[in-house]
Specification:
alpha/beta; five-stranded mixed β-sheet; 4 helices; 165 residues; 5 strands; single chain
């Protein structure tokens, strides 16, 4: 019997892990996940956007507008930074990170600083913002490669039904 031919690529697999991680986010408007992988295709860490440990999802604001103090922006930790912090101090030198949205400038600094050398992303919908333009400028200067992933499949379905395993 020949092997299956309809399996997903490594890039699709790791982006799928990032997207699955995003499903843990409690943010009502934007859910982002990240997956960090070493050069041997071993997952080093994952993260998603949310509040820091000890800051209750029920006590802090999720609003996107109004007085900045009462919005989510001063409090939310982005998926990329959470994945870096969740690595438990393991070296991320030479790793790749998979993330749905192109990283903001603050996450770009952390990505560069920890030694990640490649960024794979799905959407660059904020490309014209100062933050993303700054990210690309820093990535270019630091030699961090960034690639928009164009998966073969538009969706993957995860089926939890036991009879289908």
């Amino acid at each position: 019997m020949p092997k299956r031919n309809d399996y997903i690529s490594w890039d699709e697999y790791f982006m799928g892990i990032a997207l699955l991680s995003a499903r843990r986010s409690k943010d009502p408007s934007t859910q982002v996940g990240a997956c960090i992988v070493n050069n041997r295709n071993k997952i080093m860490s994952v993260g998603y956007n949310g509040f820091p440990l000890g800051c209750s999802d029920d006590d802090f604001p999720w609003d996107r507008s109004g007085d900045e103090y009462d919005t989510k922006y001063p409090y939310v930790c982005h998926a990329e930074l959470n994945a870096i912090l969740n690595s438990g101090g393991s070296s991320l030198e030479g790793c790749k990170i998979y993330v749905a949205l192109f990283p903001c400038n603050e996450c770009a600094k952390a990505i560069i600083q920890c030694g990640i050398k490649e960024v794979y992303y799905l959407s660059d919908k904020y490309a014209e913002t100062v933050g993303v333009r700054a990210s690309k400028r820093m990535f270019d200067s630091a030699g961090v490669k960034y690639t928009q992933l164009n998966p073969v499949s538009e969706e993957l379905v995860i089926d939890f039904r036991k009879e289908n395993i």
